[in-house]
Model the fold of this input.
Amino acid sequence: MITTKNCVIRLSRYKNALNRFKSLGFVKVFSDNLADAVGVTSSQVRKDFSIFGISGNKKGGYKVDELVEKINIILGKNEIQQVILVGAGHMGKALLKYKGFEKEGMKIVACFDVDPTKLNREAQTPILSTKEMKDFVQSRRIKVGIIAVPDAAAQAVLDQMLEAGIKGVLNFAPITLRGAEDTVVNNVNIELELENVIYYVNALGKASRANENQDFKI
Amino acid sequence: MITTKNCVIRLSRYKNALNRFKSLGFVKVFSDNLADAVGVTSSQVRKDFSIFGISGNKKGGYKVDELVEKINIILGKNEIQQVILVGAGHMGKALLKYKGFEKEGMKIVACFDVDPTKLNREAQTPILSTKEMKDFVQSRRIKVGIIAVPDAAAQAVLDQMLEAGIKGVLNFAPITLRGAEDTVVNNVNIELELENVIYYVNALGKASRANENQDFKI
DNA sequence: AGTATATTGTGAATAATATCACATTAAAAC
DNA sequence: GTTTTAATGTGATATTATTCACAATATACT
Done:
């Protein structure tokens, strides 16, 4: 299965926006506020809530705390999520140091690498041999993993993860991986995201040069 | 403008797959091969090509080299793309070290940070003061930038970038930014991508537990 | 208390995207 | 040279996602 239902992604965005509203002292918000914060229409916001069975108050909008709570439950953030990471290269190390996951209730509990020189059992988040992954994952019933290895190694790592019982994978290797029926793989490819920006910059450039209305609308 | 037309993203994926096919010695490919590699249907592949005016050979498929070339032109990869980076934290430094961009014809030519202790004019990719950004960008006519700063700083950085003449931005800060009419902002939020995986893992878990067919199809 | 107002919630309408199905045609087989 | 075959390319169709429009209703105002 390949991920990406936009309504789920938007739900996360709403949650992030709500946390910002909260830190600004907001107690309630309207669909309009969220729409502006996230860059969608207010009907989109309400429709999304409707899909997930979230309701607010006619007039009165939504209570920020309640709404955050409801979204967190839907997103499975009521308990801390243990996650493993495979690959202790530049990307992997940056992810290890990144504070944002814990803030959101997701914790990288171990990192694995095939390179023996990278191992470090004593680190705050231990860096272990990939050989140990299966045992580690099974004994702790970990369900989610991150791949941050070169593209050539990615498929093998995914296979090992699934073999170990991992059900969901966030893949940063620049290759589109796919899992089995009952697993999720989310491929995030940062080169591709940059390429995408460049494409639109070029498209915009062409559009403004050829000032006439053209058929390639963005 | 907010990015993401899936056909453009898929085009990048096709290109990546083609490079792998090429390194395996393939001279021609069929829409089926690309479809399998990228995880879409073959009609999707052909439809995408049709949209971008790419054609192959009835029977015979597509010549790998020609196809890569055509896609590169569409994606604006015929000349090397100079990109700036703002933020020399964990994420920023990992991006600086990352080899994947150059391989794809995209080069981070400078990094900017507000923290004076992080500056390093002599580094291979210099880390300069954010104050210098505008001059740098304007003198080199740079059009694309990457934001890798904390969320609270992101909007201000975006404003400075656009002020300097940047037209396209890849934003890694966990906040949805939006640019002006004639600019592109691509928000990539890795926390959110991981959250998304967790959501589907939970959904799959529920689906398999409640074994009966249920209304939440994925 | 009654009226006006602002906002939700959602079916209906529309728009965007993906799939189907098949006519077309180049290559291979005979 | 003719037939068969295996692919492309694309209109037609189906599906999915978004927006519209407005009834329902809680709150604020008088």
